[in-house]
Design a protein that fits this description.
Layout (H helix, E strand, L loop, with lengths): L2 E9 L5 H10 L4 E5 L12 H6 L1 H20 L14 H26 L2 E4 L1 E5 L3 E5 L5 E11 L3 E3 L12 E2 L1 H4 L8 E5 L3 H12 L3 E6 L10 H14 L2 E4 L2 E8 L2 E7 L4 E6 L1 E4 L3 E3 L32 E3 L10 H15 L13 E3 L4 E6 L2 H7 L3 E7 L4 H6 L5 E7 L5 E8 L2 H13 L4 H6 L9 H10 L9
Parallel strand pairs: 1-2, 1-6, 2-3, 6-17, 8-15, 9-10, 9-15, 10-11
Antiparallel strand pairs: 4-5, 5-6, 7-16, 12-13, 13-14, 18-19, 19-22, 20-21, 21-22
Helix pairs in contact: 1-4, 1-8, 3-4, 3-6
């Protein structure tokens, strides 16, 4: 057993870990990154859940399914016709795999360019910032670091009565690799993963039923935005059943028989595939040896302060395995901030301005507080909203669903939250993020000239509407 010392050892090569490793190396620190992920080809693959079986592959399938849905449902209005269109699921999934391979290889190249040492294996943190690594071949080695950054990410939560078999009952990774469109797809959980992957297979012809245990749809989003989104999903044929609590999932031949209860009684549902997407938990099992001093909270997350420090000298943690939203971009920003703090710079992440996006059709995006949160906190506020149906570019695109809602402080006019549902809002939300980072007001947005015709004019009009002076709708 040999031990090599580094300035920084990063555990995990997801969006938080690999970004932390690259930034640390850029700052002149000798850096290693340990990761255990194995790709579809059986070889180590950098990028974590997000790149391999999450953010990137799901967006590839979302785009493929959107193109097919447009061809079969939306192109006629443009005068475009195609006879007997079909989709080859194998080709679609193969395209997704190529995109994943491209980006995992890209990280490998970035590690090489920045002189980051990648190490494949399962890491355990020991006292004294020693990291024990069990290789995929069973070999064990140790390295140590002046600093250790924990970025182990998260894993899907498995229900005890609906365990993954990777064939009929699957997690997010399994739902990215169906070899054919299932006739009937059940989805447990109407969160980001459930809605996005449910949308993929619905557009390709599945009969999709989503069971959500909570009584409210998208409780984390602003209620007006959630209501508008739910209306569009219903039009698309997504069967979303709220207050539906699954109690049993039994495989019977090539079917999955579900039992769930709702406000009325016990119900039954038969599907061909079942996606369980009820949330994720920090991947900290087996991470910590005895005596490290690093603490885990009741949800298994690493306890850190506002600067992602664990309280143990030289040990930090970032991304999905700590408090805050489980979002790739939040983890990346934390990784950069910690690397800069280690190098003696001023790293910082503002969790209040982290944007949220759900890549459904229409897309959903927001930053800041919802109206419901502000009511609960007793904060005085004013709102303004504007529909995409009144935006010329949206009508020209045949993408009129949705709206933009701006919330500002009633006394100071400072932006407190901006919420959107509609086409391309994943790109549009960042105007609001910038404005809020610079302590902007609704009037600031209202006085910025927005190009015409663009979708972003909805942001301009919603900001004007806060002061009841929208131009293109009645106030």
């Amino acid at each position: 057993m040999s031990e090599q010392h580094y300035d920084v050892v990063v555990i995990g090569a997801g969006p938080a870990g690999y970004v932390a490793a690259i930034r640390a190396a850029q700052l002149g620190l000798k850096t290693a990154c340990v990761d255990a992920f194995i790709g579809k080809d059986g070889k180590p693959a950098l990028g974590g859940t997000c790149l391999n079986v999450g953010c990137i592959p799901s967006k590839a399938l979302l785009d493929s399914s959107k193109q097919f849905h447009n061809l079969t449902h939306n192109f006629a209005v443009h005068g475009i016709a195609a006879a007997n269109p079909s989709i080859d699921v194998g080709t679609m999934v193969g395209r997704k795999d190529k995109i994943v391979k491209q980006f995992t290889g890209g990280i490998t190249s970035l590690f090489k360019a920045n002189k980051v040492t990648p190490i494949a294996g399962f890491a355990t943190l020991k006292p004294g910032r020693v990291v024990s690594i069990k290789g995929h071949d069973g070999s064990v080695s140790e390295i140590s670091g002046t600093n250790v950054i924990i970025g182990v990410g998260s894993v899907p939560i498995e229900l005890p009565f609906a365990k993954f078999d990777n064939k009929l009952i699957v997690d997010n990774a399994g739902a990215l690799d169906f070899d054919a469109t299932p006739a009937r797809l059940g989805v447990i959980g109407a969160g980001v993963i459930g809605l996005e992957l449910g949308s993929v297979w619905k557009r390709l012809g599945s009969e999709v039923t989503v069971l959500e245990a909570l009584p409210d749809f998208l409780a984390a989003a602003d209620a007006d935005i959630a209501k508008a989104a739910a209306r569009e999903f219903k039009k698309q044929g997504l069967d979303i059943r709220l207050g539906a609590k699954l109690s049993k999932a039994q495989i019977n031949g090539n079917e999955v028989h579900l039992t769930y209860s709702d406000a009325k009684s016990e119900q039954n549902l038969v599907v061909d595939r079942l996606l369980v997407a009820v949330g994720r938990r920090a991947a900290t099992n087996g991470l910590l040896a005895e005596g490290t001093g690093v603490q885990l909270d009741e949800r298994g997350r690493v306890v850190v302060d506002d600067h992602c420090h664990t309280g143990v000298d030289g040990v930090w943690a970032v991304g999905d395995c700590v408090r805050g939203p489980m979002l790739a971009h939040k983890g990346s920003e934390e990784g950069i901030a910690v690397a800069e703090l280690i190098a003696g710079r001023a790293g910082h992440v503002n969790l209040d301005t982290v944007p949220w996006v759900i890549y459904t059709e229409p897309e959903i995006a927001w930053v800041g507080k919802t109206e419901e949160q502000l009511k609960a906190e007793g904060v005085p506020y004013r709102t303004g909203s504007f529909p995409f149906a009144a935006i010329g570019r949206a009508v020209a695109m045949n993408e009129t669903a949705g709206m933009v809602k701006v919330i500002a402080h009633a006394d100071t006019d400072r932006l407190l939250g901006v919420h959107m549902v509609g086409a391309c809002v994943s790109e549009m939300i960042h105007e609001a993020v910038v404005a809020m980072e610079f302590k902007g007001s609704a009037e600031d947005l209202a006085r910025i000239c927005h190009a015409h015709p663009t979708l972003s004019e909805a942001v301009h009009e919603a900001a004007l509407a806060v002061d009841k002076r929208a131009i293109h709708k009645a106030n």
